[in-house]
């Protein structure tokens, strides 16, 4: 019996020794295809149909994520490659169909520095009536998108901002589309990435090598075929290196310069947080320019962001947040932190809240415009009544009022002359 146990231990030791000499990375690379993907929709064999749905050009089927069974990383990389193509496709729609123009940021950027951009309608800075500002959430989405997943798996209407842009232009708004996630330029690292490792202390380097060796031996790799990818570094875009910084920059250089009497904002998810941060930085300007804000499942928190009391009061009056909820659309939703009105977006899917609330948002804006018009009419009526009362007064009363006004003007003139003499002395 003892001999059997000894033999088993010897066999296990031999097996461990064999496994330790196997390069699992190289072994696994035989299973996964190269991380090289098509550069156009046509090469992917996909296209958008007349309903804005992405379909395979040969089978007519929706996009399939699990193109290769059991290779999650490869499928994910394929999905991301398609997503980059979708981003360029949406840019083309903004320019060709929506007639928006690209405005480069920073406005004084040099030729060689990293740049970002936003999209604007031709009348964005000349429309004296209304302006619509669109702020997306965080992540991989770029200008003109609410959710990449919806564009690929559902349709262009639900996943892009294009319906909002078209509706706004039909109703006479100028439009500005922000691009808060375009924060840095990614460039490939040059030289030997491992060269820097020799600058580390020997003890630290040995511990790292021992740890990496143990991972290979134990087979604890995250993916079944970890091909080496190109290494990149990020160069921040000046004054636009974060969503909050980008929103502030666009406000200072574009939105605040708009002559529009009524500025409206739609902010989704992290875009709501960026707008609140803008209010904290430019409170008086925002309050005097922005007429109403529609948020969709916003992640802002006025207490954590340390918003002032006046900002909180303004949001309660001028802001509505359509949140993910099982309740029917526009149903009031209670909140433990009552920072602004909350209504159900009619969906429990976070990324769908903007599209689900589309009609309600424009109705909300129109309600604010109507209330402003009514307030304006009330003021006009008051002025007209004052003029009528003056006309109806007897001539003697009018003469007395005229004399009183002349006496006030005279006393003001004398006071001014005395002050001038005193200053001369």
UniProtKB/TrEMBL annotation:
GO terms for cellular component: nucleus. This is Arb2 domain-containing protein. Residues 37-329 form the Arb2 domain. One of its GO terms (biological process) is regulatory ncRNA-mediated heterochromatin formation. Residues 201-235, 374-401 have a biased composition (Basic and acidic residues). InterPro entries: AB_hydrolase_fold, Arb2, Arb2_dom. It comes from the Eukaryota. It comes from Hemibagrus wyckioides. Pfam families: Arb2 (PF22749).
């Amino acid at each position: 019996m003892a001999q059997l146990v000894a033999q088993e231990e010897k066999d296990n030791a031999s097996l461990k020794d064999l496994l330790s000499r196997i390069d699992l990375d190289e072994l696994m690379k035989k299973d996964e295809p190269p991380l090289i993907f098509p550069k156009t929709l046509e090469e992917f064999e996909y296209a958008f149909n007349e309903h804005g749905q992405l379909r395979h050009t040969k089978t007519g089927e929706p996009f399939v994520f699990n193109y290769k069974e059991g290779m999650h990383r490869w499928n994910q990389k394929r999905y991301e490659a398609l997503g980059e193509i979708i981003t360029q496709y949406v840019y083309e729609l903004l320019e060709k169909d929506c007639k928006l123009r690209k405005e480069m940021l920073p406005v004084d950027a040099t030729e060689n520095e990293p740049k970002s951009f936003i999209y604007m309608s031709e009348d964005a800075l000349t429309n004296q009536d209304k302006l619509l500002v669109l702020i997306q959430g965080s992540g991989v989405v770029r200008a003109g998108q609410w959710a990449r997943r919806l564009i690929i798996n559902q349709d262009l209407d639900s996943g892009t901002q294009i319906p909002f842009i078209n509706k706004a232009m039909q109703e006479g708004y100028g439009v500005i589309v922000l691009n808060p996630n375009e924060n840095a330029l990614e460039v490939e690292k040059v030289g030997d990435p491992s060269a820097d490792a020799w600058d580390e202390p020997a003890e630290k380097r040995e511990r790292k090598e021992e740890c990496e060796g143990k991972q290979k031996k134990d087979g604890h790799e995250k993916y079944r075929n970890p091909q080496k990818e190109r290494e990149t570094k990020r160069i921040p875009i000046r004054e636009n290196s974060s969503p909050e910084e980008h929103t502030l920059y666009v406000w200072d250089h574009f939105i605040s310069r708009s002559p529009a009497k009524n500025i409206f904002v739609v902010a989704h998810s992290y875009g709501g947080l960026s707008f609140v941060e803008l209010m904290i930085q430019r409170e008086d300007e925002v309050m005097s320019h922005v007429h109403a804000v529609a948020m969709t499942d916003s992640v802002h928190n006025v207490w954590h962001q340390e918003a002032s009391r006046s900002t909180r009061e303004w949001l309660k009056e001028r802001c509505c947040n359509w949140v993910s909820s099982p309740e029917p659309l526009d149903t009031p939703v209670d909140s433990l932190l009552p920072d602004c009105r909350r209504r159900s977006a009619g969906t429990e899917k976070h990324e769908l809240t903007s599209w689900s609330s589309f009609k309600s948002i424009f109705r909300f804006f129109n309600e604010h415009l109507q209330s402003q018009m009514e307030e304006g009419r009330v003021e006009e009526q008051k002025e007209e009544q004052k003029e009528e009362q003056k006309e109806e007064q007897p001539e003697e009363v009018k003469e007395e009022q005229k004399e009183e006004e002349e006496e006030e003007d005279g006393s003001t003139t004398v006071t001014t002359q005395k002050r001038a003499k005193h200053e001369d002395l």
